[in-house]
Structures are given as structure tokens and as C-alpha cells.
Amino acid sequence: MVASTRVRPFLYFRLSVFTLVKNDLIHRMIGMLRLIVCVLGLLQGMLRADDVARPNVIWITSEDNSASWLGCYGNAEAKTPALDALAARSVVFDRAYTNAAVCAVARSTILRGMHAVTQGTLHMRSRPQLPTLIIPYVTALRGSGYFCTNNAKTDYNFAGNDAALWDQCNGRAHYKNRREKQPFFAVFNFTETHESQLFDAALKDRTPRVDPTKIKLPPFVPDLPELRSDFAHYHDCITRMDAKVKIVLDELEASGEAENTIVFYYSDHGGATPRGKRYLYESGVRVPLLVHFPKRWQHLSPIAVGKRSSELVSFVDFAPTLLSLCEVKIPTSMQGRPFLGKARREPAKDDVVFCYADRFDEIHGMRRAIVDGRYKYMRHFTPTLPTAPYSFYQFGQAGWRAWHTAWKNETLKPEHRVLWEPPTSTEMLFDLQNDPHEMKDLSQDPAMQERLLAMRQRLQQTMIENFDTGLVPESMFDELGATTIHEHLHQSSFDRKAISTLAFAATSRNDADLPALLDAMALEDPIKRYWGAQGCVTLGKSSLKAQDQLKKLLDDKHPAVAVSAAHALWRQGDAETARGFLSKACQSLQREDLLLALNLVRLMRKDGQLSDEWVTKLPKRKNNEYVQRILSELKGPY
Q: Which of 72, 73, 74, 107 is the most exposed place for a label (fewest CB within 10 A)?
């Protein structure tokens, strides 16, 4: 009994301690749970705050109008009240450029912040496969919580579903459909200024606001009634587009989001009128760019609202700039320079804009240009081809048709003939300060030879640095073994410097380059064989020593090489051999290969080397839109 009474207090003590410890643990757990709940609440609040603390962004895009059509860019005949008012409270960029003067190529550059020539999306609506490592800006924005809408044009020129990139992508897509307090990015695209708005059917029963007889034409087009009419009507297209811009801005104001939204306005490339769209002149590549910052976000711009900027910017810069403004990590695949926002990079002292033009619709060509702000250097890599036409689609406009007819009738001044004829020089140099309409080529000026050489070298270096897929014929893209053409050029076996050097030699019109071209045609590399044959196309009869080698290349397993060899033989004067090759090739080739052959048919047809009877024997294939278009146009006047 005594022992049991002694143990009991000890047990009571242990039980009390255990109870205290248990209660303490429970209280601690409750405290931890409360802390976790509190932290989660704070995190949720931080996420909401972060959403609110990031700006919304709207891109308003018009089609086919260069900067020169707007009042805020100095056009006294323009009627653009909404855009002029927006410009007054925006940063206005005076040196904004598209890198490509046609929609699908330009838009693919914008989407990924990577040059179309790097991706392999340089040819109009070719839609090649792309590596997954090339990330669209929309993917990055959505991954960071932005609600992204597109109303509604895509035309991104890659193999895939364009619309699937967006939260909403159709004619009803709108930022108002987002969740509460979610930041948004919205695109509104207007077609009122598209080149087709100057086609005959679109102009039926319309009287232009501006008197065509009094309109001021740029000096690079001839003074023809049809051109005066088209220019006058296009002012009305611009005004209708301006009214659509006002609707978007008014709607933003009414939504209560105007003070939290940065607004961009730009056009997708240069003008719809002749020598604009598709051409690397300023009228084709210099675009309007207005960026409006509400007071809350003005710290994100180094340029004050209401001021103008002379910085060089181009479409390849738009995606990284957008992500910089939205504080989203910029993918390493993006090549452009963020010129606004917290991640802004200052432009290099020797900064240039890189522009390019390749196959547009059914017509082949290859042109490159760089702009340093004062001077533009332009190079034709298909220098035996005339600058125009660069698509048959443009002949839907009466002005284009009238200009072509006047050229055929030999009623034009020399400065207005050059567009329709092969350039007399492979390269051109323009002083944009003293010659803004690019009427005087300085490439032959002895005083400009040092600058010409420097810009020629800079263009080649730019092509090398950007892995320019234009060095490879389009029809070879699927023949070279790599998964994508982008990946092929990134292989160590692809010698970009050697191939670009050969491409420059092939287009230099220098007889001294013939031995190098002959050597290239004997190499295992089909790309080098192609440029060797192309060099003979450029030299024409000066390359007669290559005739036997060219005839052997007619059996090359790569059609691009064989077609180039036939082209060179015709240029040397052997039209019979070229005709015989084309008779067989046009029956057996498909898609891009056939299109390349038909471009040679078109040239020989214009030269009188192919008869109506010969043309009627061509296949009536419809497996490619552009093949069908060129087949139907071979009997036409262009």
C-alpha cells in the first residue's frame, strides 16, 4: 500500500507533463496551420497585386500602309484625326521598320522575335516546320498569367494551328472576356488599308475625298491618271482605318482600363500603292509606330510621351520589347532588342536594321538590305530579274496595270522604267537624308566606294550572324536531311561564311569569279553547286566556259541546281537545251520545284523563246496555289 501511494504522484506528474506537451504540440500545429493559411493568403494577394502591377497592352495593327500616309508623319493630305491625337500623347518612332515587306513573313518575325530568314519562314505562306525551342511571345505571356486575344488575323507562316496560340482568336476575341483583374494583351487588326481595297470591285461607285488631279504623287511613280486615282482613294482607306482605331480607343476608355494599358499602333509593312508592299524601298519597309504610355507606366519609356524618337527599331524587336514591358522573361531564342521597359537595351553605336525579300507569292527572287539610319545598302541575289512585278496579285490595281502598260509602250521617263527592268547594278546605295524617295543610286559614285564596301561587308556579316536560310533554295528545305531548315543551318557542317561568300561572288557580275564558280559546281555540297550555277546565270555569255559543266548539272538530283543550270544555259544563248529540259521538268516536278521551273518558263516566255503552243502543253496541276496562279498567268500580259 505504501509503495502504491508513492508511485501515484509520479504517474500523475508524467501524465501532466505529457498533457502539457501534447497541448503545446497541438497549439503549435494550429499556429503553423494559421501561418500557412496566412502565407497563402498573402501569396494570393501578392499574385493579385502582381496582376494589377503589370500593364495591359493593346496592339492596333493596320495593313499595307507606310508611315508616309499619316498626318502625324507629315502627310498634309491625310485625314487621320484619331491617330494624330494618339501620336500627340505617345512616343512616335520615326525610324521603325518591318524586316519583310509582306504580311506572312513580317508577322512570323513579330511572333517569335526572330528573323524570318533565321526561322526559315522567309517565303510567302510556305508554312515550314519549326523547332519547339523557338518560342512565340504569346506563349510566354500566357505562361505568366496574361489573357491573350487576337482579333483576328494570324498568317504566321509555320506548320501548325495559328489560332491555338491564343486564349481567343476570332472576330469576337476581346480582353473583356478575361477573369477579374487578370492582365491582358490584345491585338486588333484592321484590313481597311489592304492593297485589295484598291481593286476595281472595291472602288466601284466610290468618289475620293481628295481630288485626284490635285493630289501630290511621290516622285518614284509616273504621273498617270490611274495612279492619281488610286492614291486619292487610298487616303479614304486610311481615314476608314483611322475611324476603327478610334472605336478601339473609345472602348478602352469606357472599360476603365485606359490608365492601366499601353497602346501600340503600327502597320504590318509598307504601302499598298506601287513600289510599296513587297519592295525594300522606304515606301515598302518603313512603318508608323506610336506607343502610348498612360501616366502610371511612363517610367517604362526612356522617351517622354509627346516626343519623337530617331532610334532604329524593327519588327524583330517587338516581341522582346513587349515581354520587357510586361516583366516576362525574354526567351533566349529571341534576337531582337527590347527598346522599352525594364529590360531595355541601348542601341549599338553601329546598329542597323536588316530587311529581306524572297519568294513572294508565285514569283521567285532574293533581295537583302541594311539601314543604318542615314544610308541604305540593298543587294539583289537574283540580279538578272527585274524588280517588278514581285507578284501578279498587285495587278488587281488599275495603277499598277497602267504603269506596266506605259512601260511596254515606252512612254516612261528613265527613272520610272527601272522598276520593270533588270537592275544595272547588283547593289544599290541610297542616302536617305538627302534622297528620302531613293531615286539616286550612289553605288557607282567614286566618293561613296568606302561606304559601299563597308555596308556590303556588314550585310554579309549580318546574314552570317542570323543564319540566313535564304542561302538555301526553298525547294531544298526538305531535301537536306535535317529536321528543319533552321536546324540544318545550325549544324557545324554548314559553312555559312563559305556559302555566303560564294553567294556574293555569284551575284557580283565579275568575270574574275568564274573559276570559283566552276569549282563550286563540281563540289559535293548541292548548295554550293546551286550558287555556282547561279553565278553563271548572272554572268550570262561571259560564263561560256562553264557550258559543258552546266549541261551535266541538268541531271542533278536536286531540281534547284538543275533549273539554275538550264537558266544559265539560256542566258548563254542555248535556248534549245533549256527548252528541252523544261519540257521534261514541268511534267515531272512538284510544288516548290515546279514553281521554280515555271519561273524560268515565265522569263523565257517574255523573251519570246517559248511559243503559245509550247505553253499549252504545260500540266494543268492544282496542287499548289502559286503553281496554279503562275500557270494561269503565263498567257497573260505580265
A: 74
